[in-house]
Amino acid sequence: MTTAFPATTTLLCVMLALAGCSASGTPATPPTAGNTAVATATPADTGGSRKGDFGPPRGEPIKAVLTSPPNVPPPTGRSAPAKVIVELEVIEKELPISEGTTYTFWTFGGTVPGSFIRVRQGDTVEFHLNNHPDSKMPHNIDLHGVTGPGGGAASSFTAPGHSSQFTFKALNQGLFVYHCATAPVGMHVANGMYGLILVEPPEGLPPVDKEFYVMQGDFYTVGKFREKGFQAFDMQKAIDENATYVLFNGSETALTGDNALKASVGQTVRLYVGNGGPNLVSSFHVIGEIFDKVWYEGGTRYQENVQTTLVPAGGAIIADFHLEVPGSYVLVDHSIFRAFNKGALGILKIDGPNNLSIYSGKEVDSVYLGDKAASLTSVAVAATSNAAGTLSLEQQVAAGKSLYSGTCSVCHQDNGAGLSGVFPPLAKSDYLATQPKEQIVRVVLNGLNGAVKVNGQDYNSVMPPMSQLTDDEIANILTFVQSSWGNNGERVRKEEVTAIRNATPRTQGAAH
Amino acid sequence: MRLTALLMTVLSSGALAEDFVRLPGQPAFASILRYAESDGKVSIAPFQLMTRPVTNAQFLAFVVKHPEWRRGAAPAIFAEPRYLEHWSGPLLLGDSAEPEQPVTRVSWFAARAYCEASNARLPTWSEWEYAAAADATRADARQDLAWRDRILRWYAKPSNAAIARVGQGVPDLHGVHDLHGLIWEWVDDYAAMLVSADNRNQADPDLLKFCGAGALDTNDRENYAVLMRIAMLSALEGHDTTGNLGFRCARDSSEDSP
């Protein structure tokens, strides 16, 4: 029997080796996106650029649909490599960067970020870069999705009023940044010369309901943040990486107010998020949402259940999330001063019906005193008196009142009225009047889970166990409750609580 | 007849005077370009430079005398189709080309021919760079951040507004106007300025960079104003024209006319 183990192992190795061999010999069959979730011993890779060439383009050349942010072109929907013609125009223009403030942006397609380009892996892209005659500068383009020196930069150097053409095959799938690489490259990028090109995997991306295009960039102006009027580029601030603005889609108001992104409950949203830089790395986060999937770094694999994802300067990510709860969600760079003091804010507005079981909205707004905030003098007096055997009802009620307001009032309210339908009332409570004292002590110690009827109304929620309270404290709280709000005045003593606690198996301190 | 009358008005105005001024030069001028063999220093001999860029009126006078450089007559390999296209006609400036505005949409070949006809030449890049380093009080103001910012401001505006007339501002130390803030200018050896089209290759001795006379890298990467001049000139071919590219002429100092 001992020899069986090595034999099995050898056999396994052979099989794995064969599987690996046949996989690498199979032409151009990258895995579907779903495969990444399948737990296999050796997850297949896509083969990268080695397997990205699906042969010569077929059919008539197709003119690429380019969109301005925040819009994304529709999926290519193609099953064979095509020749795709991209016409991108460079325009230098003055645009608002903030309310009442303008800046001369250098743009690909008249917007910051530049037009979104969408092709399929294996496509042959004939790229035309047209530099508007009114431009002052020569420009070029480096697409990170291009395999070749400079990513096209050297082949697309274009003087004002001229046009350049070059062709590349999109060998690698993914979401790629493109940008201008003309000297001085930092200034061209700082002025907004970047955008995204999506190279779809052959099978496309999983369908979603809404797709949006968001790109972060940092900007350097001579004037301060929100200083009115025309603002010129500040070279020294750029070199110092001291951004005046950090923005989504090139303007403080690009994704706010009427420009907010809009979707509905029940939809799945996909964000294509890039970071043009030139300097800063983004900690991209949507306040109130968790990304169900993030194709981190814009690559092939996705991570699931992500709060904040890093978008490097000159990099991108794809984030999917399903919408359950309506309201306004805030896109931020979670390097949070950028969000609140430099403009890195956008709004995603979700309409649709509320779903209180997932998110209740604000249920309670009560005074919170904190553990130590309540005056504990009365509690100490009661404890001393109890030890001395001289504890009066008044001392118990005074101590119980202090403890109640720090612990119980959060749900049951200061006046004991509870919240109709959510938290049962303690005031004039028929439950307190009819249940035996032992049961009431047990509720505090063990909590209460499930249906209960109080003063004629049904409640079905959860009260956590309050067993972290001492026997003293529980006795005083219950004495206070029973002595208040028209209840029966029944007194509870420490010894009674101790007896019940000892008789009841439970988890200590379960509530905290 | 009307055309001739207009032409005569232009030709007889003072606009045609070409003012040259002598610049002393500098034996070891620190160029922004890294000349491998000379540690970035270039010797600038004394030379003369036009105090203003060549104007539409001056260029009109030139094409009147030299029909082969008129729009439509100049061969395409020397001047692309947009050569002087903002003029109303081959010999008519019209509304969009004032006599005192600098001439633009001129090719390098045409600029060169103009200067030759004036017994002059285009300045070299080094001469232009040396001249452009001055401000009103200093021969070399390039390290002054305020100077840089002022120059950069011109680049921050797109050129869709009308170009100003020449010689409007304060001249520099040498008495030269408009080296910054008005137009791009051709230089004689622009084609040798093979700065890589891709700004980021500079550590890589790429083929592009050691073909030209100035095997080039840049010494002063913070001097964006001058870097952009170089980038612009690198983007051009000799027959190219753009709406904001003009020129001025230079002469060797020995050719001084008394």
Give the termini separation of chain B.
38 Å
Structural class of chain B: alpha+beta
- Provide the CATH architecture of chain B: Alpha-Beta Complex
Described by strand count, sense and barrel closure, the largest sheet of chain A is: 6 strands, mixed
- Total number of β-strand segments of chain A? 23
Helix percent of chain B reads 10-25%
Strand content of chain B: 5-15%
What's the CATH class label of chain B?
A: Alpha Beta
Low-confidence stretches of chain A: 1-40, 508-512
Secondary-structure element order of chain B, as H and E? HEEEEHHHHEHEE
Using brief descriptors, characterize the structure shown.
heterodimer; A: 512 residues; alpha/beta; 6-stranded mixed β-sheet; 23 strands; 29% strand; disordered N terminus; B: 258 residues; alpha+beta; paralog of FGE (formylglycine-generating enzyme); two-stranded antiparallel sheet; 6 helices; globular
Structure characterization notes:
The complex is a heterodimer of chains A (512) and B (258). With 512 residues, chain A is an alpha/beta fold. Chain A has helices at residues 4-25, 185-190, 235-239, 337-341, 370-373, 377-388, 393-407, 409-412, 430-434, 437-446, 471-482, 494-503, and strands at 62-63, 83-98, 101-108, 117-120, 124-131, 142-143, 163-169, 174-179, 194-200, 210-219, 229-231, 245-248, 261-264, 268-277, 282-287, 291-295, 303-306, 308-311, 315-322, 327-333, 345-351, 448-454, 457-463. In chain A, strands 1, 2, 3, 5, 7 and 11 form a six-stranded mixed β-sheet that branches. In chain A, strands 12-10-14-19-16-17 form a six-stranded mixed β-sheet. A five-stranded mixed β-sheet of chain A has the order 13-21-20-15-18. In chain A, helix 6 (377-388) packs across helix 7. Residues 1-40 and 508-512 of chain A have low confidence and may be disordered. With 258 residues, chain B is α+β, with helices and mostly antiparallel strands. Mean pLDDT of chain B is 81; it is low at 201-216. Chain B has one domain: paralog of FGE (formylglycine-generating enzyme). In chain B, 24% of the residues lie in helices and 9% in strands. In chain B, the strands form three sheets. In chain B, strands 1-4-7 form a three-stranded antiparallel β-sheet, with no helix packed on it. Chain B has helices spanning 2-12, 56-65, 108-117, 125-132, 145-155, 224-234, and strands spanning 20-23, 26-30, 41-44, 47-50, 184-185, 245-246, 250-252. Classes of the chains: A alpha/beta (512), B alpha+beta (258). The interface between A and B is large, with 35 and 37 residues.
